[in-house]
Design a protein that fits this description.
about 140 residues; alpha+beta; 3 helices; Elongation Factor Tu (Ef-tu), domain 3; about 20% helix; five-stranded antiparallel β-sheet
């Protein structure tokens, strides 16, 4: 049986999940075959790979954590989401970010050796879009 469109096929079959499950080509695997892990592996992956936390300080006092550094072409530079003490959360406040770990970094196999570096930063409410809303979020 041939179909003119995918929609025709879905309507005839009646259930797209069953159509994909019973496809003659078998399950689609891209780009590698399915991999199954256990809970411990998943937690380890998060700890070692996806949750960088860097110290944010003001006048040598810890005032927060940076937790999502990313380069964005929207502003042509680096930004990071951070959790800050209210006293320094005012837009325009200059803070310092301590990037990396002391002594060349951790022994974690997923982290390259590096030198801990101080980076000057400025607090912004919405750094991703320059035209973003510039009003603080109301406290509840």
């Amino acid at each position: 049986m041939s179909f003119r469109t995918l929609e025709d096929k879905i309507q005839t079959i009646g259930n797209p999940v069953e159509m994909l499950r019973n496809a003659s080509a078998g399950p689609y695997q891209f780009p590698i075959k399915a991999e199954f892990t256990n809970w411990r592996d998943e937690q380890k992956a998060w700890r070692y790979a996806t949750c960088p936390y860097d110290l944010v300080s003001k006048d040598s006092k810890a005032v927060g954590l940076s937790h999502y550094p990313v380069y964005t072409s929207n502003v042509g530079g680096w930004i990071s989401l951070a959790l800050l003490d209210e006293g320094v959360a005012e837009p325009g406040t200059d803070v310092s970010l301590t990037w990396g770990e002391p002594d060349g970094g951790t022994k974690k196999p997923t982290v390259e050796r590096h030198v801990q570096t101080e980076i000057a930063c400025t607090v912004e409410l919405c750094p991703i879009l320059r035209s973003g809303k510039r009003e603080p979020i109301a406290k509840t």
